[in-house]
Design a protein that fits this description.
This protein is α+β, with helices and mostly antiparallel strands. About 55% of the residues lie in helices and about 20% in strands. It contains 14 helices and 17 strands. The chain has helices at about 15-95, 95-105, 105-125, 150-155, 245-250, 285-320, 325-335, 355-400, 405-420, 425-445, 450-470, 495-505, 540-550, 560, and strands at about 1-5, 10, 130-140, 145, 165-175, 180-190, 200-210, 225-230, 240, 255-260, 265-275, 280-285, 450, 475-480, 490, 515-520, 525-535. The strands form five sheets. A five-stranded antiparallel β-sheet has the order 4-3-7-6-5. A hairpin with a 5-residue loop joins strand 8 and strand 9. The longest helix is centred in the N-terminal third of the chain and has 79 residues, at about 15-95. The protein is elongated and about 125 Å long. The two termini are about 95 Å apart.
Length: about 575
């Protein structure tokens, strides 16, 4: 006889083969998880390579933008420095003393003016530390300078353009103290400022000898990638930088882009400096920034591989043969979640499929048994605890209401006796007796809940007696918010706190003290009562003991503990 079981033909008596097939089916979950991990790995690798390409392009663009910004800043720095030097040269060219010196014919006065010119050149040179020398060349060939050989300046007079702008000649060899220095020379014509005497006649020329290193005043940003920079003049001569790099650059041309320098690829970027007639070129090593980017990406790849490996190991180790009971387990749990009480009576079958699955089924069944027992125990215990708690709270309220300290009654009566012996204070005796009577009547009569206004009134009666007793020993401040006066509160909740504050805080104080009573409503609608005093305080050990008792719910079993 043949039966149908999920589309498979199973002959009676072959139940063992069916169980083996079901076991093989449960083991296929590992294969499914392996396929999921493989798909996850492929997806993560695709994401990684996509991120790698984007990250590489992003870093390359950032590097290019950084190079462009630095090159632009360098070119701007050179232009600003040249503009400052232009102003200094123009200030010398049109200085009144220079005009008078170049037009003076008397040799005696010319010598005196010569000394003034030298002082002027010294002061001008000190303004900019990059100025090596300043040379004034007259039409008669006479020169005034501070240091070095002015022959180079004389030879450049004929090359000056016929305009009022400062002209930069580029790199020149200038002799200073028998040393030959590479410098940049800038000069302009000196025209007469006297329109009546000479008109726009040329009186001579002024030249400024500049140290090329001073043209770049901003510090060059130090990055992790290798970067070189060169500064060159209008004649294509190197002013700053390495000669070998500049030579390769000139041979490859000044265009922006990737070039080969010394067998190594560089990314070159050039900015023209119009005022100088030359330009600034920066070169970044392609291999350097590529290696930095690849190093970062390889580190990320290694970390990703380690994390993926660990996750895979954990997942594979977590795959056990407990999945045979998963459907039954989730079914019972869903029914319990949906509020089906009868599901707590159901139990998982222990099929013997695997040790882990059987242990899980037995543990789950035991948990359901324990839950069932606990439900009954909790129900009965909760009922008993609720009844005990209500009785305890009622006893506590009754205790608080009846807690009029015998010492307070005794001291009040003694106070009345003292006032009667003094004589002539019958009104005070009446007030104290009335306040005592109101306090006693309030504590033993009426409902358990009263308004805060009633509680404050009986507390004021109590405080009136204490103020009579401790006359001048303390004073009372009230800060009860109006919206709290109608709130409901247990009877005699405020007076015991006030009594403790006087007895433990203010009574033994040598100087007059202050007792402050206040109330407010918290954000969650709770009534907050506060009793404060500036008395002797309490020892930390005793305070900790009392706090522990409050936290543990312990109550005083004698009146001495509350005094």
């Amino acid at each position: 006889m043949i039966e149908r079981w999920k589309g498979l033909k199973i002959v009676k008596g072959s139940e063992e083969k069916c169980i083996k097939w079901k076991r093989r089916r449960s083991q296929s979950i590992k294969k499914q998880i392996a396929m999921v991990l493989a798909a996850l790995m492929v997806g993560m690798l695709g994401i990684f390579f996509y991120s790698f390409i984007n990250f590489y392009n992003l870093q390359e663009n950032i590097m290019k933008e950084s190079q462009q910004m630095m090159t632009e800043q360098m070119a701007s720095s050179v232009s600003k420095t040249c503009e400052q030097i232009d102003k200094l040269i123009q200030s010398v060219a049109y200085n009144q003393m220079v005009q008078e010196y170049l037009t003076e014919t008397d040799s005696g006065r010319k010598y005196e003016e010569y000394k003034n010119i030298v002082n002027l050149l010294h002061n001008t040179k000190n303004i900019n530390s990059g100025i090596i020398d300043i040379v004034i060349v007259g039409q008669d060939g006479n020169c005034v300078n501070l240091e070095g050989n002015a022959a180079a300046a004389k030879s450049l007079v004929r090359q000056l353009p016929n305009d009022e702008n400062v002209y930069y000649f580029g790199s020149q060899n200038y002799h200073v103290f028998n040393q030959q220095r590479l410098c940049v020379m800038a000069g302009t014509w000196i025209y007469s400022l006297d329109p009546n005497g000479f008109g726009m006649k040329k009186l001579g020329a002024v030249f400024c000898v500049i140290d090329p290193a001073s043209l770049l005043e901003i510090p060059i940003y130090k990055s992790e990638v290798e970067m070189d920079s060169v500064l060159w003049d209008r004649d294509g001569h190197l002013l700053l930088g390495e000669e070998s790099i500049f030579r390769e650059l000139m041979e490859n041309g000044e265009e922006n882009g990737k070039i080969q320098v010394g067998g190594e690829g560089y990314l070159a970027l050039t900015y023209d400096v119009e005022i100088l007639g030359g330009g600034v070129t920066t070169l970044v090593s392609v291999e350097s920034y590529r290696s930095k980017i690849l190093s970062v990406m390889l580190q990320q790849c290694a970390m990703l591989a380690v994390i993926f490996l660990l996750v895979g190991i954990v997942l594979l180790l977590g795959v056990k043969r407990v999945y045979g009971s998963i459907n039954e387990l989730t079914g019972i749990m869903k029914r319990i979640k949906e509020g089906n009480r009868t599901a707590l009576k159901e139990r998982l079958p222990v099929s013997g499929g695997s040790l882990e699955a059987d242990s899980a089924a037995e543990a789950f069944n035991g948990m359901l048994d324990e839950i069932d027992n606990l439900n009954h125990d909790i129900f009965h215990s909760y009922t008993r605890m609720y009844e005990m708690e209500m009785a305890a709270k009622q006893s506590e309220l009754n205790y608080l209401r009846s807690q009029i300290n015998p010492h307070f009654l005794y001291n009040t009566l003694e106070l009345i006796c003292g006032l009667s012996l003094e004589g002539g204070n019958s009104q005070g005796i009446v007030e104290i007796a009335r306040a005592l009577g109101n306090t006693l009547r309030y504590s033993i009569k009426g409902s358990d809940l009263v308004t805060l206004r009633q509680e404050v009134e009986v507390t004021q009666n109590y405080l009136m007696i204490q103020l009579k007793r401790f006359e001048g020993r303390f004073h009372v401040e009230y800060d009860f918010q109006q919206e709290t006066m109608g709130a409901q509160t247990p009877k005699m909740v405020l007076q015991p706190l006030v009594e403790n504050a006087i007895g433990h805080g203010l009574e033994e104080r040598l100087k007059p003290g202050t007792l402050r009573l206040s109330s407010r409503i918290s954000e969650d609608g709770t009534l907050l009562l506060c009793v404060e005093d500036d008395g002797l305080g309490i020892e930390p050990e005793i305070l900790e003991l009392l706090q522990n008792k409050l936290e543990n719910g312990s109550k005083s079993d004698s009146s001495s503990e509350s005094e």
